[in-house]
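Let us practice reading a record.
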Amino acid sequence: MNNRRHEQAAWWAGWVGHMPRVTSLLQERSWLSPWMLPKTANSILRAIGIVAFANSPLSGLFILAGMFVGNLNVGWACLLAGVIGVIFAKLLNQPEDLLGDGVVVFNGILVACISVAVFPSLSGHQVDVAFWGVLAVMLVVTAYIDKGLNALMAPSKLPALSIPFNIAAALLLLSLRGSAGMTGTHTPEEASISSEDSEGNGTLILSDGNGTLTELDGNVTEVDWLKVMEGSVLAAGQIYGVGTIDSSILVLLGFLVFSPLLTTFFLLGGIIGSVLGAVVSVAPYGEVYAGLWGYNAMLTAGGIVYFLHVTPSSTLAAVVGATLAALTQAASLHVFSAMTVPVLSYPFNVATLLILAISTVPNPPLLWVGNKTFPEHHIYLYLKHLGRKDSLGPTENQEIPLSISNK
């Protein structure tokens, strides 16, 4: 009876979280076979989810649906980036496990989504054939940036996260602006928010596409905290450049089917970022209400509990990290706006890497997860490890490492 229960538990475990059954099934298949299409689809869908650490094809499917609901061009750009990313991951001999999990594809997806959603308003270009061609070239460049940067960071045992996306996206935007003869804070007339409100802030154009920002009353000085909370939800969609409430809910559902615990930390981070954004911003708080102050803090809080074992220390670190991400955004916003470049995910990368670096020191207060699956499973393994330590003597305990490598 116990064996039967164990087998049933193992079967269910293969289809939840990171869905290892799908991975094991596809890894055994050759790329030069009819399985090429399922393998490609799996890599692309996982890459979509792993932008926010949700390494699941089911999560990716929900998020992709959210993209198409929010902006059709963003959805198509995502698929284009996924295909190009898979092709060049193979050409660059990326490890099969990283390709299968979408780790070496997701930065290109971010470049594509944000470029289509944001850059035309800042550069004056239309999303036409020429734009798609330039984007395709940049996606190829992104694959090389990703490969090179991860090689440079390998000795530190820390992930490159979305730094390749930030580099590639900034290069693309500034090149597009240069080709249109734009420098500094100069923006095309169609990118203006209003005659009184436009200050060359590159992040303002990440609206929901339905006029939310343009309808804000410039005379309002009080914070609408209900809209701030709404902004913490919209932050989920803003990760992918789609800031509507329906697309954001679909994105959150994608997170939820991967890990309810991770989703909880995402929402916590989104609230922290949005509240701090309201504190350090000035009226009419359009960016806060649109979720633009929440997504970096959201990613930071979630990233910390994904890479580190969930303990009271890492929970506190997630709160501190989300706060640091919001403060980094506040401090760097003026620097980026001088070039009319959005902050992208720069605050997330700074805050998350600083917190994760603590886990690399001897006798760390924060414990790195060696084999990452999903937070609930990490907790199970951590508690199992503690139980095993309690059943062994002090000498034997020293021989059982909790984290073997920063994979």
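A brief commentary: Confidence is low (pLDDT under 50) at residues 1-9, 190-216, 396-407.
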